[in-house]
Amino acid sequence: MKPLFAKGPSLGVRLLVLVVLSIALMVVDARFTVLKPVRSQMSLVLMQSYAITDLPVRLWQGVASQFGSRTELIAENEKLKTEALLLQGRLQKLAALTEQNVRLRELLNSSALVNEKVEVAELIGMDPNPFTHRILINKGERDGVVLGQPVLDARGLMGQVVELMPYTSRVLLLTDTTHSIPVQVNRNGLRAIASGTGNPERLELRHVADTADIKEGDLLVSSGLGQRFPAGYPVATVKEVIHDSGQPFAIVRAVPTAALNRSRYLLLVFSDSRSPEERASDAVKAQEAEQMGPPAPGTDPAHPATVAPVAAPHAPAAAPAPAPAPSATPAAPTSPSRETH
To answer: Where is the composition biased (Low complexity) (predicted)?
Structure first.
């Protein structure tokens, strides 16, 4: 009867056999190429086993990357939306700044054509009353603004200052029903009065004879007759001329050249505020200074004080007095009085 468990070689023998077999295989593999096909086939089998054993790790990494990438994509999407919104806001601001730059350039170009001193002001408010055309600007009495001061934009006259405050002023526009301005046709010099109609796009010329030489497209400029607005500034362009044979006056409608309801930056015109007497006196003084500028012939340039007695030749009676020569010094103040006469 055979035993239930057959007894084989001992473990030490098995280990020794395996060690010898391994060494033999390594020697054969290093010296010969017999085992290369076997090794390639074994690598295919081992690769499958590697893939199977690595499958749980790859599955976990894939799931984690899916959740992680989704969270990152959501965060990145929100970030990009925020940046796009900010860039759109900046783009809108850039467009507004571009338009503002264009308006300021137009205003600077118009200020270069103005002979008087000007100062830039900004519109900061409008009168809420629909029956009055008034605006509020950011220049006031502290800035040297005076009542009646003309205001214009890059295209023409807008109105005049009618109310002063320390840091702001109120401007009455040309189209207000209570405002009128003396104008003249730039083509032929025909004078008229342009009055406001309450419509920001229309002025009317009143009491223009039906036979007057005025036609559509004529440019109306300030005539300066009212001594409030300087002469030569564009006011309006004639839009319509209606002749009625039964009426003594023609109906003339004009469109203001200034953008009354669109301009934001304005020009305050500082005209010459001197009276006619002061201007005449200043002109006489300037003429006298110009005449007395170069030294007169026969005077000593080293002694400018001797220039004043040059007026003595105008008085022949003073020449034959050689004896009192030392008294010539007190006589000097009398010579300028003769010049002024």
So the answer is: 301-318, 328-341
Of 270, 292, 312, which one is at a domain's C-terminal end?
270
Count of domains for the chain? 2
Q: Which domain holds residue 196?
A: 121-270
Closest CA to 198 of 163, 229, 174, 162: 174
pLDDT value at 338 more than 90: no
Residues 311 and 305: their CA atoms lie apart, in Å, by 13
State pLDDT tens for residues 129-161: 888 999 999 999 998 899 999 998 888 899 999
Residues 167 and 233 in one domain: yes
Are 157 and 150 within 8 A, CB to CB? yes
pLDDT at 195: 94
Burial of residue 268 (number of CB atoms within 10 Å: 0-12, 13-18, 19+): buried
Residues 6+ apart with CB under 8 A from 196: 133, 173, 174, 175, 176, 177, 178, 179, 180, 203
